[in-house]
Amino acid sequence: MNVKMKYIDGWNRARHQNALKYNERLTVLPQIRTPLLRKGAFHIFHLYVIRTDKRDELADFLRSKEIDTGIHYPTALPFLQAYRYLNLKPSDFPVAGRYQGEILSLPMFPELSDGQIEYVGESIREFFK
Fold first, then answer.
1. DSSP string covering the chain, please?
2. I need a labelling partner for 98 at 20 to 30 A (CA). Which of 3, 6, 32, 124 fits?
3. Whole-angstrom Cα distance, residue 8 to residue 93?
4. Domains, the chain, ranges and CATH?
5. What is this structure's pTM?
6. How far apart (Å, rounded) are the C-alpha atoms in residues 121 and 127?
7. What's the CA gap between 46 and 19, in Å, rounded?
8. pLDDT per residue as tens digits for the range 42-75
9. The predicted structure's pLDDT at residue 1
């Protein structure tokens, strides 16, 4: 881990810049909700997660274009087995319930190239045409 620590700041800056590039390409699509950036904060984007009502169809389309996606945290916290004893209902957490079916992680790593980001953005725009 000590070896990696000397690179961590550069990696974090690269992830942040990659997220800004994704946002430039995707915020123009009304069918996509991109991560919000809070003024004065520096997000390192371990994951770059978008939301769309057509999550599964988009994931399949991107897979057909050889773009890997993920559905990280597919179950919202209130609906996990560990909380079942609380007898929670989806109506208790309507936003979490809706978002768990919309989230899709796009490729995100420090070495992601501008061309790769453009390809992902172009492919998403193609899907929604």
1. -HHHHTTHHHHHHHHHHHHHHHHHHHTT-TT-BPPP--TT-----SSEEEE-TTHHHHHHHHHHTT---B--S-S-GGGSGGGGGG---GGGSHHHHHHTTTEEEEP--TT--HHHHHHHHHHHHHHT-
2. 124
3. 36
4. 2-127 (3.90.1150.10)
5. 0.91
6. 10
7. 10
8. 999 999 999 999 999 999 999 999 999 999 999 9
9. 86
Burial 1-38 (b: 16+ CB within 10 A, else e): eeeeeeeeeeebebbeebbebbbebbeebeebbbbeee
Distance between CA atoms of 75 and 90, rounded to whole angstroms? 11
